[in-house]
């Protein structure tokens, strides 16, 4: 199971609705399914004991945060990545013993924390949510508000879990970003060699796949960073490492335009450093590194189902423009607009485009899990990215045919009265030969949306048909709990599709 909103608290008739929870797994302690090893962690007064469980040095950090700037009292590992003492060694041992006890007696009742880590548990589900909430709200929030005011000052939810790295189990973790606004990571122990944490750049930055820093874990020491900061756990050489992870989220920030922009890729991203590549999330991984074996991928938390689904999606000749693949921002794309046409006409044009796409793709040798050098999209309904692409290309009619190159900010429009199989084929062949007239992308998406919606309203009775074969869907790559897919994956340039 992954962290989803499916467990959000629902309103009861006649009662005030409780706050919606982003991460909800239940509480096996409250349900009477778990007998703790250390009851003091679960007692109603447990929050008051943080004073003895937090490192005395952390009090200096917290005092500095309340006075204005905590950074002089911390260690800045890299821009945007800070570390500081947080837990005493005694608390690390106490919590670690509780976790091992829970894994031995309640393993069947505990969910995996996300789709990447196989051997962790969710502390909130165990019954420690009240304790963790007190840690977040009373001790960490003042610090987060100073370090990351936009993302961390109004955290109102959290997901807290344990991860474990050990030979023969999870040895490391594929590069990723978290489904968190602010991430706190504390090493609880045990004895281990290597198992460092590598940081690259922020998701929307040009250098988001450039190595910035390698962090060495210390027992009881916390490292804090933005959830959108790309990072990965380097392979453990020996021993066992167990870490406490706290994801803080803010409903206000999540509803903002800034959140959407912060999670969008740049189409002009710099060439990657190998260590910053993700086999799960980067389509071009095999262009830079050899494909890992299945066992290697699993040991590093790679979600092979996502990789295989991406491969399957790329095998589809034509995709749905209402839900475009993110590659439309970097790969030239043929787009056929057929909204509002009579169903038989839509069906015929879609079938023609399908045959053209299959013929064109057969000319290319494309490595597995990578997009072909030319994508094909169909617009059957005026929704999603359809009005925006129409506006960018000035495509006024239906049917209309264009090649849009968002990365180079240009497009090519079909000129003529008859769009059919032969004219489509000639149009695409002319594009591949570089013979089409080039036009700059426009910015008239709003006007096109209105026109497109009107065309839909004027469509004949009977509605829009389904094409002969299902059009492609954007791969659901964010069911993993890492945030790579929960947040927008569309790449960003001046004309990026949103």
Spell out the key features of this protein.
Jelly Rolls, alpha+beta, elongated, 2 domains, eight-stranded antiparallel sheet, disordered N terminus, disordered C terminus, six-stranded mixed sheet
- The percent range for helix content is 25-40%
| CATH architecture classification of the largest domain | Sandwich
- Compute the number of strand runs: 20
Number of domains: 2
Give the overall pLDDT as a whole number: 85
> What is the overall silhouette?
elongated
Biggest sheet overview: 8 strands, antiparallel
Q: For the terminal residues, how far apart are their CA atoms?
A: 29 Å
| Radius of gyration computed on alpha carbons | 26 Å
Task: List unreliable stretches of 5+ residues.
Answer: 1-18, 443-498
The CATH topology assignment of the largest domain is Jelly Rolls
Count of alpha and pi helical runs: 14
CATH top level of the largest domain is Mainly Beta
State the CATH superfamily name of the largest domain.
q2cbj1_9rhob like domain
Structural class: alpha+beta
Q: What proportion of the residues form beta strands (DSSP E)?
A: 15-25%
